[in-house]
Amino acid sequence: xxxxxxxxxxxxxxxxxxxxxxxxxxxxxxxxxxxxxxxxxxxxxxxxxxxxxxxxxxxxxxxxxxxxxxxxxxxxxxxxxxxxxxxxxxxxxxxxxxxxxxxxxxxxxxxxxxxxxxxxxxxxxxxxxxxxxxxxxxxxxxxxxxxxxx
Length: 150
Known about the structure:
- By secondary structure, the chain is an alpha/beta fold.
- It has eight helices and four strands.
- Helices cover 58% and strands 11% of the residues.
- The chain has a four-stranded parallel beta sheet with strand order 2-3-1-4.
- Residues 6-150 form the Cytidylate kinase domain.
- Keywords: ATP-binding, Kinase, Nucleotide-binding, Transferase.
- GO terms for molecular function: ATP binding; dCMP kinase activity.
């Protein structure tokens, strides 16, 4: 069976994660939520670097990636945090995601990971900046009332 990459975008709480995980499970593809990388940046900033400069965090993140610090390793670190730390690093990651250099580095890393095909990738910048050549692109929408209820 020929494998492809699937990119999913949409506004917050539009169902990207639910749909992406479902598709990945049915196709036996690897699921990647780009948010995990931003949370990892928040983790580096909040836990390890005591909120040092964005560029120090960027350098450490880049060095980790060069050492083949895989998506699975990053996911394990983030998923093992307690609820309070998870929330705090999420907020910090959101702040750091505003830095274009960080976004470019994360986008480049995800492109490298998905080069082998067989991935469902959801999140910010996926269709236009991370996987513009994805064989399948899905944009989800949900009305505001539905999103608020979720």
